[in-house]
Amino acid sequence: MQWRRLSGAGSAAERIVPPTGITARLTVFTAGAMAFLAVFALALSFASGRLAERWGAELAQSATVRVSAAAGQLEAQTAAALRVLETTPGIETARALSLDEERALLEPWFGPDMPFDTLPVPQLIEIHESGDGFDAEGLRLRLQAEAPGAVLDDHSRWREPLVAAAERLRMLGFVAIVIIAGATGAMITLAASAALAANAQVIRVLRLVGAADGFIVGAFVRRFTLRTLAGAAIGTLAGMIAVALLPGDDAGGFLGGLGFRGAAWLWPLLVPPLAGAVAWLATRRAAWRSLRELM
Amino acid sequence: MIEFKDVAYGYSGGDLISDVSLTLAPGAFYFLTGPSGSGKTTFLKLCYRDLLATSGQVTILGQDARAMARDAVAQTRRRIGVVHQECEFLDHLSVAENVALPLEVADKTAARQDLEDLLGWVGLAGQADALPPALSGGERQRVALARAVIMSPDVVIADEPTGNVDWDMSLRLLGLLVELNRMGKTIVIATHDLNLIRAAKAHVAARVLRISNRRLVAAGVDL
Predict the structure, then answer these.
(1) Residue B161's closest CA among B211, B102, B86?
(2) Among A3, A75, B55, B123, which residue carries the largest CB count within 10 Å?
(3) Cα dihedral angle (A8, A13, A15, A18), rounded to 10 degrees?
(4) Which stretches within B59-217 are classed as H helix?
């Protein structure tokens, strides 16, 4: 018989709140949608973080010397600059780019038909730093003295804003997660308050038969937490599938890097318990407030 | 058991009842009568602390109603069974689950045999799995009575329990309440049905309280 379930631990308490209603569907849908968005925000944060690290690491380890001189002096200036670089502590390698390499660098901007030989294109020297790096200011002074046409570009001018932008993007992702959690809490509070108002009869009956406030709160909190967990699990799964289906690295650019790598795939699994915790807190608060308004 | 000292209760328009002083004795049987709107339901609600007196003191099962913490109110209501004229249930739960609800909220287990015996006692042995909306008025009253007594309360309060049922069913419900009184329970029944009070005389020494002009007066055993 149906009433036998009453004797099962906690089973009737879970069923005391009527199972149907718009608030049930609203809670599941809200939790699912928010979890889906949270997964994307998380993916954005991870991708931004990776980008910042990559830009920072790649660019921090390299620099360029640009040698500009009259046609007859370019080789001598380049050789002088290379000598300076080879004797500079913190520089692992210094190599002058070949004409073909320089042509390849300029081709995206000027096209393949550029009359490269007729243009006063400066000679580029690529530098790779060793572990501790070099003293940029000291090197500039030495180049100025020994190869006046050589100018050092250690990339810091444009590397730092890029890394900062990527860091901010990562922070934005985390802020989005916090906002999503807050919005989830607010919506679940509304849904729980609506459910409490809609179930005034249930509350009246429970109080009449001697239910303590904690019991009534527990019944609603359990129901809303479980609904939120279910919705968030569905939303998280959908979000993870959507992220997995995004174009891979071969698509190039930022979009190709949006996603999780390796153990980072475990992070989205935190979204459902987090959503459950938010629902637990929000419902508990709403339920206690509603009950305290009653005598 | 339940004691009123100079109790008044009123809304913004003035007192509904006032100067009420009496003690509901353990094991006694009370009828509370008076015209509609005279304050019978208000008096009963003061008895189980659904309302707080605007002045005076109500002591329920040894506790000052005004000083009771919320959990203490819940505990007290487990010792007072209440039956309303408009019985309210959890409509999505079966009759048996509704009857066992007081046990559930008190974290106690409902033994199947006890539930069956109780439903049999109120004449609803075959209705355990029915849902409340499918029940007649008399059946609902009996389910409410079964729910009110499942915790073996010290006091049973019934507010117009026969208001929605025919005379035969009224007598049947009265018989159940008399039976409970013989088990030592204090019974308080609010009714405007004087025939019911007269019918009770044959079975129990009922005390009749009447609310008239906001005052509660003892009408004695006889009307």
Answers:
(1) B86
(2) A3
(3) 170
(4) 70-77, 95-99, 101-105, 112-121, 137-149, 167-182, 194-201
Residues of A in contact with B77 (CB under 8 A): 207-210
> Is A3 an interface residue toward B (CB < 8 Å)?
yes
Per residue, what are the HEC states of chain A? CHHHHHHCCCHHHHHCCCCCCHHHHHHHHHHHHHHHHHHHHHHHHHHHHHHHHHHHHHHHCEEEEEECCCCCCHHHHHHHHHHHHHCCCCEEEEEECCHHHHHHHHHHHHCCCCCHHHCCCCEEEEEEECCCCCCHHHHHHHHHHHCCCEEEECCHHHHHHHHHHHHHHHHHHHHHHHHHHHHHHHHHHHHHHHHHHHCHHHHHHHHHCCCCHHHHHHHHHHHHHHHHHHHHHHHHHHHHHHHHCCCCHHHCHHHHHCCCCHHHHHHHHHHHHHHHHHHHHHHHHHHHHHHHHCC
Q: Is the pLDDT of residue A5 over 70?
A: no
**Banded model confidence at residue A134, pLDDT cuts 50, 70, 90:** confident
Question: Between these two residues, A60 and B140, which has the higher pLDDT value?
Answer: B140
B71, B93, B112: residue with CB nearest A4: B112
Mean pLDDT estimate for chain A: 83
Q: Considering chain B, what percentage of its residues have pLDDT values greater than 90?
A: 52
Assigned CATH class of B2-79+153-220:
alpha beta
**DSSP letter (8 states) at residue B151:** T
Contact A204 B88 (CB under 8 A): yes
Provide the pLDDT for residue B25. Answer: 92
A293, exposed or middle or buried, with CB in 10 Å at 0-12, 13-18, 19+? exposed
Residue B168 carries which side chain, given as an amino acid letter? D
Chain A interface test: which of B70, B105, B119, B124 (most A C-beta within 10 Å): B105
Domain boundaries, chain B: 2-79+153-220
Give tens-digit pLDDT for B139-180: 998 999 999 989 889 999 999 888 777 888 888 888 888 988
Mark yes or no for CB contact A209/B77 under 8 Å: yes
Written as six digits, the tokens of A80 are 């002088």
**Residue pLDDT, tens place only, A70-109:** 877 888 889 999 999 999 988 888 899 988 888 888 888 8
Digit-coded pLDDT (tens) for A155-168:
766 777 877 888 88
List of chain B residues whose C-beta atoms are within 8 Å of the C-beta of residue A12: 93, 97, 100-101, 104
pTM confidence score: 0.72
